[in-house]
Amino acid sequence: MTALPQKTPLPLDDAMDRLGLGPFQWRLLAICGLTWAADAMEVLLMGFALPGISAAFGLARGSADATWLLTATFAGMLVGAVFWGWLADRIGRRAVFLTTVSLGVVFGLCGAFAPGVAWLIVARFLTGFAIGGTLPVDYAMMAEFVPTAWRGRFLVYLESFWALGTVVVAALAWWLSTLLEPAEAWRWLLGLAAVPGVIGLLARLGIPDSPRSLLVRGQEAQARGALLRVARANGTTLPDAPLLAPPPALRVTPAALFQRVLRRRTVLLALVWFGLSLGYYGIFSWLPSFLRAQGLELGAVYRTTLLLALAQIPGYVLAAYLVEKVGRRATLVGYLAVSAVGAYLFLLAGTPGAVLVTSALLSFALLGAWGALYAYTPELFPTPLRTTGMGFVSGMARLASVLSPSLGALLLTGRLGVALTLFAACFAVAAACAWGIGVETRGQRLPEAVLPENGA
């Protein structure tokens, strides 16, 4: 009897490309985007709530407690990004996908009921610890579920929800300022900011684990089941062939990020994340207080911040086009260069109109840079280390975020030139590091294993 010919194993990239772009990916984008917008609200929250908290607890401008309140969320995110990123590579994306959002909602609501500054600082740290895990996991999930030709654009689309969160928190703060006294409004602001997380959690329950993560952990049947769910949602058919087993997985530890070819990528990416974050949060975490110190009334501060958030949208739109047209690396370097120039233009602005225009340019360029960076980063790490790598480099960003409020306070103490020179230098160094990575991932398949020492 003649043996039946064995079917050729199907690589995961081929399977995902054949399933195409359809309702599944758009739904995943909406779900992850909602949570990403909620995270933006939580991260930027203290900048809007600080005037009310200061009024409620008698905090002096630039006091240690005020700086701690701005720093606590970032400190939590530093720990959370590294921990949850590592855990997601060990146990799978979906479990962390659900847990971090749940904890973010709980701790976010706890902050709204904090009886004092110390309790509020603890609540904000724990909130940051929870939402720090959504970054590496959401971007790994999106990268691993989207066909190659669309991956870069979708990763920028996901990052663009940050602008939505910024617009919502600015509008919410403005609206509450018209209804309540600042000493009371901040509690409502913290409480309402947790609501999108609840909706995002419920929506996430229907999302399967990443087939790449499942396959790397030896769960071929579950990986195929996840692909079949994509096929049903998109109205396509999964080929009747076994999935190609990935190469043996590395031991998932942060130390693996510094072995062989990954070492250069990890170090340079960490510097890019650190520099961009230090400048971005150094400027924008203190911008509402800076505008307030220039004599703007609170409602005008919130309206101005809302306009700056709207300026982010065209930055994302252009980045989504450029990452596929000219590539991830060139787009990232270009936006960082414009950010460095924009910081000096902001320094030279001498009228309220010039301040608004130059800060809008900064908002446009910096968020475009973030969009390109979020598209580039997950494509540089292999599947067994993708969320570990994302967690590590984003942890470096959170380390910068912890430092940035102290440096950003220079904006309020009259050392504007020192602060903006430092931030412009950060953007310039980040641009040089991004170019130094020397790898373009546009149109390339996601790596499943660490490349040899002489690989690109």
TrEMBL record:
PROSITE patterns: MFS, SUGAR_TRANSPORT_1. Coiled coil: none annotated. It comes from Deinococcus carri. Residues 28-442 form the Major facilitator superfamily (MFS) profile domain. It is found in: Membrane. This is Niacin/nicotinamide transporter NaiP. Its main location: membrane. It is a multi-pass membrane protein. Keywords: Membrane, Transmembrane, Transmembrane helix, Transport. It holds the Pfam family Sugar_tr. The gene is naiP. It comes from the Bacteria. The chain crosses the membrane at residues 66-88, 95-115, 121-142, 154-176, 188-207, 267-288, 300-323, 330-349, 355-377, 389-412, 418-437. InterPro entries: MFS_dom, MFS_sugar_transport-like, MFS_trans_sf, Sugar_transporter_CS.
